[in-house]
Design brief:
Helices cover 29% and strands 19% of the residues. It is an alpha+beta fold. The protein folds into two domains: 4-132, Alpha-Beta Barrel (N-terminal domain of MutM-like DNA repair proteins); 145-280, Helicase, Ruva Protein, domain 3, CATH 1.10.8.50. The strands form three sheets. Strands 1-6-7-5 form a four-stranded antiparallel sheet, with no helix packed on it. It has a four-stranded antiparallel sheet with strand order 2-3-4-8, covered by helices on one side. The longest helix is centred in the C-terminal third of the chain and has 22 residues, at 197-218. The chain is globular. The chain starts with a helix and ends in a 6-residue tail after the last helix.
Amino acid sequence: MPEMPEVHALASDLSVRLEGRTIARLDVSAFSALKTFDPPVSDVAGREVRDVTHHGKFLDLDLGDLHVVIHLAKAGWMRWYDVLPAPRTGRGALAARIVLDDGSGVAITEAGTKKSLAIHVVRDPLEVERIATLGPDPLDPAFTRARFAEVLRAAGRAQIKGVLRDQSRIAGIGNAYSDEILHAARMSPFKPAAMADEEVDRLFDAMRSVLEDAIRRSDGLAMADLKGEKRSGMRVHGRTGEACPVCGDTVRRVRFADSELQYCPTCQTGGKPLADRALSRLGITT
């Protein structure tokens, strides 16, 4: 799933490619992807792209008095083509195409059977409920350590992993970067959000450094290269069974119904492996 650093890089790449260009049409191949009906998709045709920005994980194509807002969800992605392909079915099926007046443009795809990708055509991005309820951008200078501490205090006994991923509390952090932030902060994913001042400082600094580093690595990359860069920069996420680059312990995972987290026992949980809940249901310990 693309998170804030990748969406930031996608917005930068799309801005270079689309800004000042005229959209010939927006073709939506997957009916489930389109979440709005007024204004109609046809109103996009003939409009110039003024800017491409993002709100957390949401891309925003500014067309003046219209906006095309895209959330790529878990399995969505975007690819640039000098000549756009025709719609097709199957894995990585085309969900939509942003077609420019010269036939080039962007293909938006979504792999798998669980379709969560969302496209909104709106007059104001705040018409998208999940944007209207977004928490602050974690890299906004106005999001200070004091404001971060307030977020954690308000979350109380909620597990910190879930708090970091809660888009209404902090925008743009998902499963991957929450793993990386907690590893950098040497903190258990199940630790309560209400914590000591020293721990708040450590977590705030880790959040800033992990996200800033990810943005630096992704800055200037074309969208085709972003997935590989994200994977290569991860220390624990997606690296179950590998050695922790800090201490050498084996990276472990905890699996849930539709996701999993990765962590280092030595760095984060005092050397104690957490119970893998999927295995625990089968009477297996790790």
